[in-house]
């Protein structure tokens, strides 16, 4: 509790508006704000990280982008590479202001319980005591940052799942959970509790749903995507039609007991082709149907990313579908001495496209409070007509790690 109290006092004492046209300190806990990660100091036009020490909660962040000195393209991401503002172009002397909500959390649940983090998660920006913003792009320009607690009326969407959902901390991996943030503004917060390698059962055993329940309220949503790793569980009761369905029912009952709504997302396809390299073959066994069966019985809305990602891969074709996943020749990333050929985990382009499938599913289901809060620049998406890979622009973060995430 002492750590939380310190964070709260620091939050109350610190400035709420940071003028980045003036010198700012390097982050340390005693100050509670400043340039962070690899940013010791910065020159105009450099990318950088900036952190503010705050308690758990949703925060309204307002950024003013642009420079009096030069044109810029600025991308804003939060915590572990959550895309908030996509490549804002400003002319010399032009300023643009944007607001969005960032969910910040720690592993703390109560005096006797924490989330059981995996060792790799201790380095994630998602689970520390500060809210971190990443500014990237082509000659990026940031004039000011303002942060304040979000209103109680903000609707929070909690994400549960595995490596295809998690906020991947490092390049070149990415997942839809950290891209879907881009299409929601002031009225929706995304709180991503997924982690690589998890099943529905291990998510529950790791106290992750318990963490969600501490702040879950009426009007919030819990999205669940499982199936990838569940099918590899062994032992008594394992299988799609018993343990898996049983665990999904636990999610439903506990979420609804809080007055919140639950949505299922069938698992993303693996890039597994038939012998003619024309069609994606089913690798998830009965798990998608088991999820659909529970959803039908319990009246849970379903977003069919299983079907949409199949269409997506088949539209791209055997070779071009590699462009959406972590397929890179040796030497593409620092310390990468072997080629990467991962047919499960998405790169930023693939994650961006899957996130569009999620938003399209939200719109088709007309989910209250979400479908009506999609940003005005949204354009409807068809996985049979995906975005051109060559037109997608992603500015890599400063942190990369080619270690394959848990799960497959």
Describe this structure in words.
The structure is a single chain. With 408 residues, this protein is α+β, with helices and mostly antiparallel strands. The chain is built from seven helices and 18 strands. A five-stranded antiparallel β-sheet has the order 2-3-10-5-6. It has a five-stranded parallel β-sheet with strand order 13-12-14-15-16. A four-stranded antiparallel β-sheet has the order 1-11-4-7, with no helix packed on it. Helix 4 (240-257) runs parallel beside helix 5. It is globular and about 60 Å long.
Structural class: alpha+beta
Average pLDDT value? 93
For the termini, the CA-CA separation is 38 Å
Uncertain segments are 1-11
> Would you report the number of β strands?
18
Shape, principal axes of CA atoms: globular
Sheet with most strands: strand arrangement? 2-3-10-5-6
Number of helices: 7
Helix residue percentage? 10-25%
Radius of gyration: 21 Å
In quaternary terms, these chains amount to single chain
């Amino acid at each position: 509790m002492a750590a939380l109290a310190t964070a709260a006092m620091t939050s109350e004492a610190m400035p709420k508006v940071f003028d980045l046209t003036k010198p700012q300190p390097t982050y340390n806990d005693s100050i509670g704000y400043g340039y962070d990660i690899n940013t010791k100091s910065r020159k105009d036009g450099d990318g950088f990280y900036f952190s503010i020490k705050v308690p758990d909660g949703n925060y309204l962040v307002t950024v003013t982008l642009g420079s009096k000195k030069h044109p810029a393209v600025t991308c804003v991401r939060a915590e572990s590479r959550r895309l908030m503002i996509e490549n804002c172009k400003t002319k010399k002397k032009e300023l643009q202001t944007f607001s969005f909500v960032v969910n910040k959390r720690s592993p703390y649940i109560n005096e006797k319980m924490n989330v059981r983090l995996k060792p790799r998660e201790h380095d994630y920006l998602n689970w520390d005591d500060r809210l971190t913003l990443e500014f990237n792009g082509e000659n990026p320009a940031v004039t000011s940052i303002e942060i304040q607690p979000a209103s109680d009326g903000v609707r929070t969407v909690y994400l549960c799942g595995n490596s295809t959902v998690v906020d991947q901390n490092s390049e070149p991996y990415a997942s839809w959970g950290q891209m879907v943030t881009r299409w929601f503004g002031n009225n929706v917060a995304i709180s991503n509790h997924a982690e690589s390698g998890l099943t529905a059962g291990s998510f529950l055993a790791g106290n992750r749903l318990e963490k969600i329940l501490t702040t879950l309220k009426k009007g919030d949503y819990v999205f669940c995507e499982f199936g990838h790793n569940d099918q590899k569980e062994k032992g008594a009761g394992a299988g799609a039609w018993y343990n898996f369905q049983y665990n999904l029912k636990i999610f439903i009952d506990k979420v609804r007991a809080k007055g919140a709504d639950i949505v299922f997302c069938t698992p993303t396809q693996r890039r597994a082709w038939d012998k003619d390299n024309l069609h994606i073959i089913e690798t998830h066994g009965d798990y998608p149907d088991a999820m659909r069966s529970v959803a039908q019985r319990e009246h849970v809305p379903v977003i069919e990313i299983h079907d949409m990602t199949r269409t997506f891969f088949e539209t791209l074709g055997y070779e071009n579908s590699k462009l959406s996943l972590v397929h890179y020749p040796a030497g593409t990333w620092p310390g990468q001495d072997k080629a990467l050929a991962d047919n499960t985990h998405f790169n930023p382009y693939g994650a961006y496209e899957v996130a569009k499938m999620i938003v399209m599913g939200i719109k088709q289901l007309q989910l209250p409070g979400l479908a009506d809060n999609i940003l005005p620049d949204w354009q409807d998406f068809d996985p049979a007509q995906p975005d051109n890979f060559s037109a997608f622009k992603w500015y890599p973060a400063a942190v990369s790690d080619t270690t394959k995430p848990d799960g497959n």
